[in-house]
Write a structure and sequence with these properties.
The chain is of the alpha+beta class. 27% of the residues lie in helices and 23% in strands. The strands form three sheets. A five-stranded mixed beta sheet has the order 2-1-5-3-4, with helices on both faces. Strands 8-9-10-11 form a four-stranded antiparallel beta sheet. A hairpin with a 6-residue loop joins strand 10 and strand 11. Helix 2 packs antiparallel against helix 3. The radius of gyration is 23 Å and the shape is globular. Bound molecules: iron/sulfur cluster (2 copies) and FE2/S2 (inorganic) cluster. The site of one iron/sulfur cluster (SF4) has 15 residues, from helix 4.
Length: 259
């Protein structure tokens, strides 16, 4: 174990932990945007910045999600400088996604006013946090979407802006998107994934063999089976998680019925 100073607290933690992890473990709030606990840190958004104070009193600004704790370190998470730098980041986020609840909540917290939308570029609601791309690539191993360049700037898109054959319609990218610019619609047995109004792909919904609820997609079932996941659903006889639990409970109760 090592020891660090976190604001006024002297805390112990394991070597290799990030400052963000240590802070959260001790109830110290640090806002994040591009961080997700199931993905390696990317250090993209700079919202999680803190100050590191060196023995000579000098301070430098670091991203807490990528900064590893070392013994004797002194970290300040709530100084005027940190507050003002985070407010600057939030102002830029507001320009990109002025209607996103998550960004407006942050702005309220930091007292940031909505900046005048005088930019040439229309806000498209995407803060380019990259969470969707990293989730698709690193959690789902699909690489169906990427950060692409458009005439007006960067956006999230499929290769060549065509519908992506790689997309299995899992919805993981939608779940991690902090602004809701990625969303899905389900109708007539089809799941559609959109970035704004741009259709990324369509996949076939699969009903549960027991209750009939459309709970997954054909492409995701096939991909999960292909990856050899131990809890893969039977692709021939798909059953949703709730019905699978009921089947299991019935199987377990059967031997007891004899007594
Ligand atoms: S829905 Fe498609 S694009 Fe989104 S994470 Fe799943 S495979 Fe990737
Ligand atoms: S679509 Fe959502 S998750 Fe993806 S980069 Fe934009 S804001 Fe982030
Ligand atoms: S959460 Fe640390 S840089 Fe984005």
């Amino acid at each position: 174990m090592i020891s660090i100073q976190l604001n006024d607290l002297q805390v112990e933690c394991e070597q290799g932990r990030t400052i963000l992890e240590v802070a959260r473990a001790h109830g110290v709030e640090i806002p994040t945007l591009c961080h997700h606990p199931s993905l390696p840190p990317a250090g993209l958004c700079r919202l999680c910045i803190v100050e590191q104070e060196w023995p000579d009193g000098e301070r430098s600004v670091k991203s807490s999600c990528t900064l590893q704790a070392t013994d004797g370190m002194k970290i300040l998470t709530d100084t005027d400088r940190v507050h003002s730098l985070r407010a600057g980041v939030i102002e830029l986020l507001l320009l990109r996604a002025p209607h996103a609840t998550s960004i407006r909540d942050l702005a309220n917290l930091y007292g940031v006013e909505q900046p005048a939308l005088t930019q040439l570029q229309e806000p498209d609601g995407c803060v380019l946090c990259g969470l969707c791309v990293r989730t698709c690539e690193q959690s789902m191993a699909r690489e169906a979407i990427t950060c692409a360049q458009r005439s007006t700037g960067r956006s999230v898109a499929t290769a060549f802006h065509d519908r992506s054959e790689n997309c299995v319609g899992c919805g993981s990218c939608v779940n991690v998107c902090p602004t809701g610019v990625l969303h899905l619609e389900q109708q007539d047995g089809v799941r559609r994934i959109f970035w704004n109004d741009q259709l990324l792909n369509e996949t076939e919904l699969v009903p549960c063999e027991d209750c009939g609820d459309e709970f997954t997609t054909r492409q995701l079932l096939d991909w999960t089976a292909q990856r050899g996941k131990p809890n893969a659903v039977d692709t021939e006889h798909p059953v949703c998680p709730a019905c699978a639990r009921q089947r299991q409970a019935r199987r377990m109760a059967r031997p007891l019925a004899r007594y």
